[in-house]
Amino acid sequence: MRPAVRSFELGELIDLLGGELVGERSQRIVQVAPLDQAGPEHLSFLGSDAYRAQLDRSRAGAVVVPAQLEISARTAIRAENPYAYFVRAACLLNPEPAAVPGVHPLACVHPQAKVAASAEVGPFVNIEAGASIGSRTRIGPNSFIGAHASIGDDCNLHRNIAVYAHCVIGARAVINAGAVIGADGFGGAFDEGRWLKMPHIGRVVIGDDVEIGANTTIDRGAMADTVIADGVKLDNQIQIGHNVTIGRNTTVAGCAGIAGSARIGANCVISGAAMITGHLSLADGVIISVGTVVTRSIDKPGRYSGFYPLSEHRAWLRGALSVRRLGEANAPGARRTDTKEDDDNANR
Amino acid sequence: MRPAVRSFELGELIDLLGGELVGERSQRIVQVAPLDQAGPEHLSFLGSDAYRAQLDRSRAGAVVVPAQLEISARTAIRAENPYAYFVRAACLLNPEPAAVPGVHPLACVHPQAKVAASAEVGPFVNIEAGASIGSRTRIGPNSFIGAHASIGDDCNLHRNIAVYAHCVIGARAVINAGAVIGADGFGGAFDEGRWLKMPHIGRVVIGDDVEIGANTTIDRGAMADTVIADGVKLDNQIQIGHNVTIGRNTTVAGCAGIAGSARIGANCVISGAAMITGHLSLADGVIISVGTVVTRSIDKPGRYSGFYPLSEHRAWLRGALSVRRLGEANAPGARRTDTKEDDDNANR
Amino acid sequence: MRPAVRSFELGELIDLLGGELVGERSQRIVQVAPLDQAGPEHLSFLGSDAYRAQLDRSRAGAVVVPAQLEISARTAIRAENPYAYFVRAACLLNPEPAAVPGVHPLACVHPQAKVAASAEVGPFVNIEAGASIGSRTRIGPNSFIGAHASIGDDCNLHRNIAVYAHCVIGARAVINAGAVIGADGFGGAFDEGRWLKMPHIGRVVIGDDVEIGANTTIDRGAMADTVIADGVKLDNQIQIGHNVTIGRNTTVAGCAGIAGSARIGANCVISGAAMITGHLSLADGVIISVGTVVTRSIDKPGRYSGFYPLSEHRAWLRGALSVRRLGEANAPGARRTDTKEDDDNANR
Description:
Three copies of one chain form a homotrimer.
Chain A: E1 8-9, H1 10-17, E2 20-22, E3 28-29, E4 31-32, E5 42-45, H2 52-57, E6 62-66, E7 76-79, H3 82-93, E8 102-103, E9 108-109, E10 114-115, E11 120-121, E12 126-127, E13 132-133, E14 138-139, E15 144-145, E16 150-151, E17 156-157, E18 162-163, E19 168-169, E20 174-175, E21 180-183, E22 188-191, E23 194-197, E24 204-206, E25 211-212, E26 217-219, E27 226-228, E28 233-234, E29 239-240, E30 245-246, E31 251-252, E32 257-258, E33 263-264, E34 269-270, E35 275-276, E36 281-282, E37 286-288, E38 293-294, E39 302-305, E40 311-312, H4 313-328, H5 340-345
Parallel strand pairs in A: 4-5, 5-6, 6-7, 8-11, 9-12, 10-13, 11-14, 12-15, 13-16, 14-17, 15-18, 16-19, 17-20, 18-21, 19-24, 20-25, 21-26, 24-27, 25-28, 26-29, 27-30, 28-31, 29-32, 30-33, 31-34, 32-35, 33-36, 34-37, 35-38, 37-39
Antiparallel strand pairs in A: 1-3, 2-7, 22-23
């Protein structure tokens, strides 16, 4: 565990974050911990009654609980949204390091780039002509900010981030290692036996308070911009194609892909490894389950799914054979297939 | 939008690219744009009659249209392949920057590496002994070219590209940030309770005119080479296993994976998130749909699919239960399952 | 093919690795090769009788074969585990380069970092305060080792590896380009219309003899550690969420994902593009097939599958329609759907 940067008395937390204290203001909290691992120096939380038994056994010094919860013989903070309260307390105990103003001597910053005096630029960073870096923003080692790209205030680009030319990133972005923002999208014209690459003149335009996970890629638009709205959270290893738009506060989990020109609404949840094909629209508030392929537009909020259910392998094999025959039966020239080969290859 | 690098009169385009002009040679075009966003200074295109209504409403200064199209009262260029023509015009307006010859003082180039005098090597690049870099090729910042690797003429390695030792890349490659070419492949021998790593002595050999997307990985061969033929286009976040071969002009979309020793034909289309298992063959001209798992060889061109259809979640759940029972029914020791747990977990 | 670093007489191999020699001790071997490509100077191997015909045609100078195999008129080494023997021989012929001790003048190593005198630190590497690098360990160009992170002895971090602060990596790790270890995990609290980011105070703790593929990402724990046990092998482009634990000698193939807080047993095999959802457990010895979504815990070893079988597209379309109707039939407010749209979009 990383040690906390500072500690608090419960009374200080109440003064800063609100909530109703049950117990002593002077009790000191040095870190957060889950109920089953917390000791007397830790703050923990109870998200729902389902964990009530864990609460009873916990050695936590204090626990954030729902506002209406009956508790006794325990130091607690009652809050409307216990998890959010707990996260805020964790942030107070473990603040992000502030930018250390200045440009590292082993960074290459073009004389026509604008870097705020309060920004931090690490070693082996390359910032091209016309780029701008906002106040208190940190550009981690080995990163690249292309010509005329713009990074807002209070951003944290961890390390080895690529922001291609002309892309725009708003305030308070958190971008993890290996993310690539603004590479050309995929596709071109086939002519005379070869593919011609379409030059991409659009940008990636990212709003405020966006998080981007490690090794996630967001392609620039071909002739319009790829747009990520305020508050969007993208996990690791996600692919966002050219000209995609994603609405406010939508979250996308790891390994998901959104193909070119898809329009995703606000407050959507795209689960891990889901794949949204191109040129379709998802309404606000759509939830896509894990591993689901979306091949049609969805105009009503709600949860949508489409992945094959898990079975023991032999049972899957029989079921998959039946499913395949559903399609092959009655078809012109239908032939029976067997799944012997699938069986041989399925876990290669 | 990025501004174009230069502008053209329509007559100049006709002289360079052919096509039949309907209108004035002197009309000036400063950039390309889609029909619905184009203004009088833009060139747009009509790919098919389906967009005829958009054409009628468009303010585009000129439009590339199919050769046989009836048009009136509009400046146009008739071309056999309007989209290819349009892409060529876009390339003339927005040429890739040329290499600025020279090695950056903060690059490490081994004295026994051969870098063409016309090549550009950016800062924080490491080029090892025996590597060679072709004429007019650009090696972007923070890239790595391993010992005895060879990069052809007129390539553009954007930034943070890893080309491991002994790999070969042909002419005119475009490689986006974070691509890794030539890491060892996966697998080994299990012996005495642990995995032994097989040293990989094969290479990755890439032909001419290949594009490789951001964060795509191509493993070197174990005892033979991994081979990517001329004109192949790979999107972002693709994994190509050791000893794979991919034929000419095949395209692979984002998040797809091709496992070790698979042989993919020419002119195939592998859609996004498709997964090809190892040691099988796909004929020329095979199209694999999005999210499809391929576990058997395919010896005839055509389109193949295999992903679960999307439904509202409750409907999916009922269907998935039925599908699972197809496999479990009549099986020795069959037991009924329910999908309660799946329901709980499907969008975690 | 890369040339071998050294050559051996068969007698030397027998002395080093054991096995029973059939033929002359003095025969010289300069490299390994598969049966169908080997010449008289190569060592090859026969893994199973299925390749017996290949053996008979092979020009290999010597072949490692199963201990009980009848052979005649051929130089061979009989071994209990021929493939493991062959891999060991390949390692002797092609040893990994040893560390060249020292810190490159263009690396940034904090004065409070501890780098073993026998370790190699490449150019453009950044090592922060309190980090430690073990004996004979190689830290390749453009890598990053965060504050208080610890890397064991005899590791090979190829290049552009990110190890975030406080993470721990054991001995003999092999980590390929672009891997990111210890970025914050995904998720937070939603409150007052926006997502609050949970600070991640856990670490990633990796045992001995672990391999990590190119562009694979492993998130640090939120309030506990993410733990990868000894001998685990991870392929390329894998995503491991926060608080995951993976048991000894488990292998995970390319493009797989393991969501937060999943607990994977020892000696499991997770095939390519499989997706394990969060907060569930897999027993030791579980095998998950390619492309399978796991949404429930599995408490018995064995093989489990769940992916849609491949068909020609028209057959798939009919089958998928039937499968969808299985879920929609008899449902309140059931409506018939068609798959026209899927058909249009499935290979975009």
